Amino acid sequence: MKVEKIEAKQFRLMVASGAKRLEKNAEYVNSLNVFPVPDGDTGTNMNLSMTSGAKAVSTSSAEHVGELAGALAKGLLMGARGNSGVILSQLFRGFGKSMTDKETVNASDLAAAFTKGVEIAYKAVMKPVEGTILTVARESAKAGEKKAAQTTDVVEVMETVLSAAKKSLAKTPDLLPVLKEVGVVDSGGQGLVYIFEGFLEVLSGKVIEEEVYQPTEPEMTDMINAEHHRGVHNHIASEDIKYGYCTEIMVHIGQGETVDSEFDYDTFRNHLNEIGDSLLVVNDDEIIKVHVHTEKPGEVMNYGQKFGSLIKIKVDNMREQHDALVETDTAAKPAEKAPYGIIAVAAGEGIQELFRSLGVNYIINGGQTMNPSTEDILKAIDAVHAENVIVLPNNKNIFMAAEQAAQESDTPVVVVPSRTISQGMTSMLAFNEQNDLETNKAEMSSELENVISGQITNAVRDTEINGVKITKDDFMGIIDGDIVLSKDDRKEATIETLKQMLNDDSEIVTIILGDGVPQEEAEEIASVIEADYSDIEVEIHEGKQPVYPYFLSVE
Predict the structure, then answer these.
(1) What is the b/e burial string over 283-302, where b = at least 16 CB atoms within 10 angstroms of the residue's CB?
(2) Residues linked to residue 456 through DSSP beta bridges, in sequence order
């Protein structure tokens, strides 16, 4: 069937379909993460970003494709999380700009929109890397332009764009050696392909066959935990929490005397979505795991029992939890703006307190597996109520969202490019309230080179990177972003990582304990380092951070 123009109704459906297809495959996209660390959240970030864009389109009353494309771009920008989410938002920002005056869109318009998206996205990335989502977007847009010169059928153009995107995705390992080494395609590019597949399904009216990634039982647990951390941020007031009970259940499908219904994922999920938010439903053939924020935890449990026996139940009152965590940085704004406000992204009560002790005014609860969105950072900029604002992302995957927030804010904002918690803390030593904003940015940024950052975390799969053989569940040592070792003993991995971080100029070692790590173990590590390096002073702090048992720094 030939289609010569896209009208508003079709465009709404295209966006919804693209978002849904990405959502269904988000965990597969996550699994393509190159590094075997438990923060491979490209799929999650793209999904949350696209969901925000799709919501903006669905709530818009516009009957004009250009206006809907603008709503999509704005929604994506505000919901953008992680570098992958920000790049996706920029692709559709250009896409929307190209369509601004278009009430309907023809084949040529569609191709031009994809091309404009590529142009804007490449400009947004300081150092574009080929073999990523950018390459997939660029090569597919080029193919679309060529096809649009030959046909007036938007279906043919979209088919060509998708086909070229898949071919480009398959070639990403040839352009980015680390992808070939690990044996995966680019995760961001794969996410974009899913969105394009959703677009084509609506335009063509044909279902595209797909294989949905099936997470393992431990992966389901990780997904549930990550979703809970995303659900409530420190800058939300307790009274503003709409659904107060974080409810988790695990259902053994088909077991028990209460079963009266056959499990269907969409039906199950849609029902729970009506009684809560922050919903995540994951399953395999035997188990359903549910995370939802609701006012009716009992109703969630009763509903689960219709499909099987409950083998795990957990309910937390988030309002009480939140009241215990909220401190002065979320109090009412003072009448006068402070000269400076400093915002840091960090997870873990201990680490957050360390940042406060260094002079940080506002903490966004986030980091690994919990990348805050552009909107989250904008809200923090507003809440800190200052004439000038400095943002410490403390994670390279938060840079772009922070930069986008700085551009969107009416307040003068700079981003100090701290890649780690250790860098963020070190940069605070150079802050001087008497300096102007740009001078503070320059001097705080220069401090980043004075610290070597290390991390210890578990491997989520077997692989080999840079000659390091890695076994699932081993403890990996990471120095300034590079995996340097993998061992089955946590203490040994930490000691050996620290030894690789030390040099003749080293003076101070800082060890920050993650959630559940015993103080005694850290003290034993410190004793070894002090015995082997008599000039080194070791400091130990309790960070309580998730995902990483140890953050390490050497200065």
Answers:
(1) beeebbbbbbbbeebeebbe
(2) 477, 550
